[in-house]
Amino acid sequence: MEGISTNWTREELKAYILLYCAHADFIETKEEIDYIKSKVSEADYQKIHNEFENDSDYESIQKIEYTIEKYNYTEAEIDLLFKRIKELFYLDGEYSAAEQSIFIGLKHLLKTN
Questions:
Q1: What angle do helix axes 10-22 and 97-111 make, rounded to 10 degrees?
Q2: Do residues 19 and 52 touch, judged by C-beta distance below 8 A?
Q3: Where do the domains of the chain lie?
Q4: 3 backbone φψ class: left, alpha, beta (φ>0; ψ -120 to 50)
Q5: Per residue in 83-94, pLDDT tens?
Q6: CB of 66 closer than 8 Å to CB of 4
Q7: Quick one: how far is CA 43 from the chain centroid?
Q8: What pTM was computed for the model?
Q9: Do 12 and 48 touch, CB atoms closer than 8 A?
């Protein structure tokens, strides 16, 4: 993870991960935005959204991995993140192939730490 780091709080990390997942299909719906805002503060959402918009997919993954490791998340905390991710994915009643791909990729990345 050369040179990629964050100074996020745990709440900002949650916002970033949920935004990353909301963009699985490259569309951020009102329902997804409302869901994310129900899980984090408006200030955290705005700050992280602005940062997210300027990051590449590679940078996003590196930042997520770095911050999970930084806070030494427990398996229970990671499981809760995945519960939130699934809730986000099912907001529209579908679990698309793109969403499944993101879910599997994040699970592989974060469950091995």
A1: 150
A2: yes
A3: 10-111
A4: left
A5: 999 999 999 888
A6: yes
A7: 16
A8: 0.91
A9: yes
